[in-house]
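Researcher: Final request for today, and then I'll write up notes for the group meeting. The sequence and the SMILES for zinc ion follow.
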Amino acid sequence: MAEETADQTKVIKVHKCPICGKLTDNKTYRPFCSKRCADVDLGNWFNQGYVIEGKAPVDEEESE
Ligand SMILES: [Zn+2]
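Model: Predicted protein-zinc ion complex:
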């Protein structure tokens, strides 16, 4: 007797949005669910002061 009720153990091929945690299979904004979440992630990068390659952080506001 084989009971096939444990079907939930099957691997589901969906991605989880790292921003909102929503399941998504959106291929355009992977791994995000939408452009909004992608933008949020990008914003987090800037907010955390990540230095973009080739760009030195401008710290002085004095004009010559
Ligand atoms: Zn999301």
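Model: The pocket of zinc ion is lined by residues 17, 19-20, 22, 32-34, 37 (CB under 6 Å). The beta strands are 15-16, 23-24.
Researcher: Thanks, that's everything.
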